[in-house]
Design brief:
Number of helices: 3
Oligomer: single chain
Shape: globular
Strand content: 35-45%
Strand order of the largest sheet: 6-12-11-10-13
Largest sheet: 5 strands, mixed
């Protein structure tokens, strides 16, 4: 039922963002567009992650939209100016599409996801929900000369003080589309979070770190 509710909530939130255009110098704010998720607006109970726990609440599940937007923005020259991540890892990787720690946490109205268009181009965001997937694309009014690629590195589980933790790094590198030559690489995210599910011993590469 919560999965079905999430589709309802995601559809409502996606409709507030789909089609918007971010002109040079403008700032995108997730909550600035979506606003507070309330029953009056049609939002229903869904799963939420809050203060280290999995709970249910009105509008639960829409942070998946923030995750997608963040992932898409990382493949563009747009500049992230506010991004938060969960302090814990609630679920194992079964069904996980994106690398651990590559999402963006949002909580109305003080934990936002924002980025700025620091380029000379205009960008349009398209997001939509199918019966099985949340999808999206970022379009530009001119071709961008660089392509962006993301890679997870240095991933491991480890135990400390009787608790299990998970860490990794998310790197980005840029390639010149015309020549195919490597341009630059950078470390974007360094994650280190407590794991809330059981990890088998063979996955632990470091104990009592």
């Amino acid at each position: 039922m919560l999965q079905e509710n999430k589709i309802v909530n995601l559809t409502l939130a996606a409709n507030k963002i789909d089609g918007i255009i971010i002109q040079p110098g403008e700032v995108f704010s997730f909550w600035g567009l979506v606003g507070r998720a309330t029953r009056k607006k049609g939002y229903i109970e869904g799963m939420q992650l809050s203060r280290g726990e999995v709970k249910t609440g009105i509008g639960g599940g829409i942070c998946q939209l923030a995750n997608l937007l963040y992932w898409m923005v990382l493949h563009t020259p747009l500049t992230v100016i506010e991004r938060h991540h969960h302090s814990f890892d609630p679920f194992p990787d079964e069904g996980r599409v994106l690398p651990f720690g590559s999402g963006a946490s949002v909580f109305y109205n003080y934990v936002d996801f924002r980025f700025k268009n620091t380029t000379e181009y205009a960008f349009q965001i398209r997001v939509w929900v199918t019966d099985r997937h949340l999808k999206g694309v970022i379009l530009s009014n001119k071709e961008i000369a660089t392509s962006y690629h993301l890679e997870e590195r240095a991933h491991q589980f480890y135990k400390r003080d009787g608790k299990t933790f998970r860490q990794n790094e998310i790197w980005r590198w840029m390639v010149d589309k015309r020549t195919g030559e490597y341009v630059h690489e950078e470390l974007l995210i360094k994650n280190n979070s407590e794991v809330k599910y059981e990890v088998v011993d063979r996955q632990l590469v470091s104990v009592n770190k």
